[in-house]
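#onboarding

Welcome to the new folks! Below is a worked example of what a typical request in this channel looks like: someone posts a single protein sequence, and someone else replies with the predicted structure as tokens. Don't worry about understanding the tokens yet, we'll cover that in week two.

Example request:
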Amino acid sequence: MDEITSTFNAFFDMHLDALELSTILLCLASIFSLINLRLLKLPQTIGLMVLALALSLSILVLGFIYPKIFNLALFITTEFDFSDMLIHVMLPLLLFAGALTINVKEFLKEKVTILSLATFGVIFSTFVVGTLTHSLINHPFFNLGHLGISYVDCLLFGSLIAPTDPIAVLSMVKKMNLSKTTETRIAGESLFNDGIGVVLFLTLLNVKSDGVDNVTAMSVGSLFVTEVVGGVALGALIGYLGLKLVEYVENEHVELEVLITLALVLFVAVVSTRLHFSAPLGVVVLGLFLNQSSKEEEGSEKAMGDYVYKFWHLLDETLNAILFILIGLEIIILFRDFNPIYLILSVITIIVVVSSRGIGVFIPIKILSFFKSFEKNTAMIITWGGLRGGLSIALALNLPDTLGDGKSLILILTYAVVLFTILVQGLSMNKMVKSLS
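Example response:
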């Protein structure tokens, strides 16, 4: 009996390397996907999130009985650099896979609408959420001014919570009975607002690191434009060259096309990071270029073979599964710094975030409706379909540790919004669309 106990203790005391951590995540992704498919029968994103949360809560309960279980789970979540892995590896791959699902001809018709919604929506939401959050934190009822969260910190929170999760949104949109135009608008807006959100976050982070007194409107605008224009230009250049390359290779050599697309995505991501361009915008533009037909005629075959699309769909589903399990497991960290007053603040923040998203979508649609036609209740569908996910959490984890307890509060507010949008909005989206139609 003593030998079994010592073996059990040794297992939970061990340190895990990258291969062992990846194995645990892949095993969990496989098991959870099977349980969801056969028992829960929820949309993949939501089902995985529910099961990951159930696992986290089980670990917390078992942790009171046997603390080493909780310590191992905490080690996994802290050892696995979620923020770095998502922003520099998973996000470019997932956004490229998402761009391959977009109808390019429909996108080009709706490019003004998509870019207007993505840009105005993110900037408007950032400043509304940031301003109101700052007011709430310093309100006498909450009395959280001692955390030292500045207005710039609140704007950073606004910028990281404004972008929607394109992976969750795209998987949901495919199952709704929407017109091709509306589907393209929702999917395109979700893909591009990620890039705009990351650029805005990095711009504000630069303002914080340089000090507000040392920053001018010109320098902020220049940094923002450089990130956006640089990312789009790089993605377009590599996308144009990549399109010519896959056309030259031809669709018989599908394994080579897969290697080329992988190399191009990672190349754009790495070069964008080095040159301080927007990698998310770069890989989305790259995906739109490579997703074109090899000729201009209607019905002509794609420049890349079906096998390439199947590969990216498989990679998308695998990374998506791992991503939402990580989101669910990361909640374990929050229980170290949880304060009951944060619960009330979280509820108010959720209302502020969803409302600002709605207004940020409604205004450009109202203006554009003078020139374009929109389906009835488009603004409501885009608002309620604005699920948040891994990007918001990764950016929150990327906040400087100098924030101290303020960072913990921002993380808790971020998780609250992510959980609400995925579990509540995601589960009720289909019913809402049917009730509005």
